[in-house]
Please model this.
Amino acid sequence: NADGRADFAAILKGPSSEGKKPESLLVMYFDSHDNGPHLQTRAPKASCIGCGGAKAPMDEPLGQLSITPEGNLEIIYEGGSREEWSDALSWRWNPKKGDFILMKETYQDLDTLGKEPATFLYMDFSTLRAKLKEGNRKNSCEIPAEFQGNSLSAFEYAEKHITDFNKILNLCRGGIR
Model:
């Protein structure tokens, strides 16, 4: 949160029970000078277990966390099967909203059989611009305003985000040259 004190993020894995998959929970703690760390953000659907395909850990939460030197929270999701993919999301603390807001996303995939061109999609949600490269074809497109301002506490990676991502990808593909 750029106050000069150490913050930390973690993805926690809940216990599994008979017939139910374990759940994961992303948490962000800020250091309050007087009382030590306190829970700032809970994001119960920002990670998932068993949702990354054959090339992701099946019984572990999907997503690797880091805090960048600029103070952004970065979550990198990786997985796939025939296609290997990586999806890096960058979040910035917004004190007015009391939550992290999605600022940028960088997605790439590669067909391990080489039959489909590699895809690279960069999205900047603050400027509402995206850049797509598939093989040798490139396009820039505008991201609809409805995708701006996503908060981490309400973020659903495996459900809503994948649907939203595909809408933006298809929008950019419509003008590919």
The radius of gyration is 17 Å.
